[in-house]
Amino acid sequence: MTWLTVLLLVVVAAAGLLRWRRPAWYWLTFGVTFAVLRVLVRYASVMDACGLTVPPSRWRLALARMTNRPAPECRAPRILRVRPTRTGLVLRLKLRPGQDAFDVAAASDRLRHSFGMYGVTSRELRSGVVEIRMTGYDVLKRVQMPAKTDTRPMRVPVALREDGSVHYRDYRAVPHGLTLGATESGKSVYQRNLVAGLAPQDVALVGIDCKQGVELFPLARRFSALADNPDTALELLETLVAHMADVYQLIRTEQRISVAVLDAEIAADIWDLPEDLRPVPVVVLVDEVAELALYASKEEEKRRDRIITALVRLAQLGRAAGIYLEICGQRFGSELGKGITMLRAQLTGRTAHRVNDETSANMAFGDIAPDAVLAAIQIPAETRGLAIAGDSSGGWHRIRAPHTSLRQAVNTCNKYADRTPDLPALAAFRPSVAPLPSARVPLSKTAPATA
Q1: Where are the domains of the chain?
Q2: Could you tell me if 368 and 391 are in contact, meaning their C-beta atoms sit under 8 angstroms apart?
Q3: Mean pLDDT, 10 residues at a time, over the chain (451 residues)?
Q4: CATH number belonging to the domain at 16-135, selected among 3.30.980, 3.30.499, 1.10.287, 1.10.530
Q5: Using an 8 Å Cβ cutoff, are 308 and 340 in contact?
């Protein structure tokens, strides 16, 4: 008994230490078993306490009276599947007649307390089926991306959501995006993750960094075009508008509209074209949009109007031509001048890091998800990288990108520098960089030994 007691104390101490220092390891070793037992044992009583049960049907009550049996109890949603994950549990429920997915979503906080989990979110899979995702610990405190992700062309993983799932930036589903955040909020790290995720793919990266290029020019080997001042940015954007017109002419030529062609084979954008004719998609990253919209003289105002007009045209027409916008800034409101709100309306994907005031959060989510505004202004200053991501559907998630240093992003871009497409239309804006040193040549010379 003495050795058994000592062994039990060691196991309990190890579990406590893991839960304090390595919550992910604790969850995989002890937490998942305790959580499954807790959910299965408490399920019926918790659903009843949270108001997620329905009274028995009339025919069951009539049958109980006819057979002189006690009245049947209220019924909870039926469990279809319980699936453990690396961060929590996934519970799939079949709702009873009269229940709605909104009832489950409204009771998420009560379910979190009742089941002893860190977080609970729900979503409707189909009519009558709801998926509840539970997290066993704070997955955003120390972000660890899974080893395997569902990466596709123009779809890259950039962050981790609070429910443990991966947050993807899918340009074919959400063509244009807006990223807001105050200084030191983690906006640059999010952008580095985006560039590092796009680097291995067949895509042309175009950067506009009016902070003299301090953010994007270190990644220049993977960029097909870069601009570091508003004048060059204007020329680059107007060149992209001309390139977009050429792509549309190509689509028009290869549209294949005839009675002999199936409807699915008629080309309406670059992804309907054959691979040998398909132009390379282009992602345009604007690091600080306010520098393009501010002006101090009449000449700068004319330049600013041309820049905003080019951005609006790319946002309205660029998707079918394979041109996608990723605009970053600290603020993005009507005070930046005419055309800004028109441009913002075209930016479907919204991501807001920590902001300095409620007005900045309203710029991102006020017109699509008002309840996300409160979540954005509650981000603490010490949790850099934490952000709220939403889209025009009204849904939003709390996300956090893994920390990627500038050195790591540079190494990734250098590794895939050979995948940088050479677009003739953008040749004038191609950054000039020195060739990478050969693997056989040492990066530094060793000083000879002296006596």
Answers
A1: 16-135, 155-429
A2: yes
A3: 74 76 82 91 92 82 77 85 91 91 91 91 90 91 86 92 91 92 90 94 94 89 93 95 93 76 75 89 92 88 93 94 93 82 90 87 81 86 88 80 92 93 90 67 44 36
A4: 3.30.980
A5: yes
